[in-house]
Design goal:
alpha+beta, Aminopeptidase, 7-stranded mixed β-sheet, Acyl_CoA_acyltransferase
Amino acid sequence: MSNELFQYISIHDHQDRIDDLIELLNTQWNRSESSRRVMIEKSSEDLPYYLLMLDKSNDNKLIASCSMSKVIDCADDITTITNQKSESILIENVLVKKEYRRKGYGKLILNELERIAISKGYKTFYLSTLDQKEFYLSNGYQLCEPLAASKFTSSFINEEGLDKRSSLMRIFGGAGNQKKDSETVYWLSKNV
């Protein structure tokens, strides 16, 4: 597949595409437009970072999207003390528009996001999925422990097994106020 057929853009450099991104994300994970807009407008070079893939042969139609955020773990405590940054990111919202699926676009946008992350100094990528485990395994990811179950975030799970974190923290490994065994969530990671 030729790079001449599509282009990658960051949403923070192309805010005129926010409505397109909201529409795409809501086809898979429905949320209010205002909630989506608040998160998307936080996109920046410093993360979170939303990446879009456009079809140049079809009026720059949105093909796919994905995002990355910094992983908050013990590395943040180290950051405060030693001024080092975390080397881990959480990849989210990897989504290809239905009519473009099964054509290799998911792999392409994931590879581009990984390339951008590596250029920013990130070395470990985490993600979770309900139904795309095989796709990520075929792209070099390995099953791993959930971030929410790590010793750095387990204090957020109460005695009933419910996630008691704020909605901001839920993006780092939980579905908030849902039983943890309600669906099988696969966590995967990749070291580069």
